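Can anyone check this?
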Amino acid sequence: MGTRDGRRDVRRQSVRAYLHRWVESSGAQLLVVDPTDDGGALAEAMAGRGVHVTWVGSTLDALVEFGRTDPHAVVVTSEAPGIPAEEFVGVIRQHGAPYVIAGTCSIAGTGADGVGPLILAGASAVVVRPYVPQHLWELLTHAPRSLAEHARLEIGALALDATAYSVRVNGERIADLPLKEFELLRALMLASPGVVTDDELRDALWGTDGKRPGGNTIAMHVTRLRTRLGAVADVRRIRGRGYSLTVG
């Protein structure tokens, strides 16, 4: 029993690490500007929804991260040090139209904790701290830039949902893929019908740190994925370049 539980824990950790890698490179981006926490719990919860959280403690750091990540949405509190939060909101809204959410300790205290100026500066919603992932997700679904595209991929009859960890063919869910094959399929679908290089696949399947396997291991996973997908998709080896997926 203990061994089985141990294997289950290892699998959970592998899926968790995969989700973080996936959302960081391809997910929706959420920037949180709040000096009261490090955001670890929120980042963990939002990763499963296809949202990567960048958490900073000051508006000056937030300006840097805003330029780096081009976030879909920004949560900001009036207590954040640096330039005034309402000035920060005004600046970022001059460079696109991010969905801005004002963070507050309580809705009843909007006048006391500076939410009013943030609304006037361009915030479109208010969220109470500590942040509840489900509530924040509901607010994010109103953002002008779609979030759903980052959790789901669909090419012809083939559909992958990272949130549900599922693959469907013609609407019917197939047997769950092993983790590496799921990651492989996701990487190929993101680039389809383009080519994904061996190095890009290593990054997607094993991350950029530590020892990574060679091309034979990738080829083995590709062969297994082909078998599981059958005739619905063609995964081709492009000699000297990588792999490409097309769906008939």
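Reply from J.R.: I decoded it. The chain has a mean pLDDT of 81.
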